[in-house]
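Kindly inspect the following:
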Amino acid sequence: MSRVYKNQFTLDGRLRPGLGVTKKKVAAVSKLIDEAFMGSREAKGTLEEAISTSDAMFNYTHLVGMNFIPQFDEAPRLWTKIATVRPVSDFREVIDYELDPQWDSNTLGDGDPVFTAPRVPEGTPYPEATFSGQAVSGAKLNKYGFGTGFTFEAFLNDSLGVIAQMPQKMLEVALDTEEAFIFNALKTSATSAQALAAGTNPDGASVVANAPFTRDAAIQAMIQVKQRKHNGRYIQFNGGFILVVAPGMSVNANWQLYGQSMLRVEKTDGRVYSAADAQLVAGITDIIESPFLTGNEWYLVPTPGAIRGHDGLTLLRLTGRESPELRIEDVAGSYVGGSKVDPFEGSFDTDTARFRVRMFGEGHNFFPDGIIWSDGTGA
């Protein structure tokens, strides 16, 4: 569903109108662009003249932002299936807070198997728990971005092409950057401690360590991850898992999970899968392919918010600057007489103009023990 803004001109404060930018002028530039794309030579000529001789350029860049930010917000993303968002206010490492599962009495509520509140006898003080926070290494914002330029001559030769294509290309890069934040965080947090170990399933099927993805491997993976403990208590999963595989591997994954069950394929060891067997792996709610994975490696990742009391994969965003920011370089100087030269006239030294995109973000896995993975080698 598209977001509805109370103030479309500023996108509820996310856009700051520059000098000479007004609703009326932005609307006029938008009308000229629409008419030019419809084939009006008069509108195209008027637009080129306005951009190179007035403040239409500044109104155009504001118009780009009015379109760019909503398009960025509404663009489809893979990472939202496995990660949440946490706004942060600065570039310092994020502080994570947690209760120590030992009460001062050290007799009740020690977190095994669950973290319970101790009984308080009549007339006695309440036991105290330790509440502490520490900086999470690697969980901090970074700045990303790039610039691109073109000459005054190139702009005049293909002004509408530049106007139409450049912001969209920058949008695609920004979207890919967010995907990289999360999937790189997933891979770097997946150590040997979270890897699939050898095991035996309830039906007697044996699974080797780092097994390629099969139905049996999926069952064993969910058994192992749900038997893990954190601070002495079992991790509580209140949702399903997303299976992440390399491009092209979802076909095999779907076949392994459900195709064999539907066709009642008999295994060489005499076991037969029926439709009811699919319920054993029903905890996998979706399968996604990521270009950040290769070969036979695969991951089971809890759905966002599925681990009670813990964040998992998280996209960090700077509060108040959640979307990428587009700028145009303004070093064109001034005309003799004092009037300002618009940026698309080109810079003072080289007659070039530049766009720049800036964004703040980073991905982090705050709870690596919530995932289980395999490199698929069987070794």
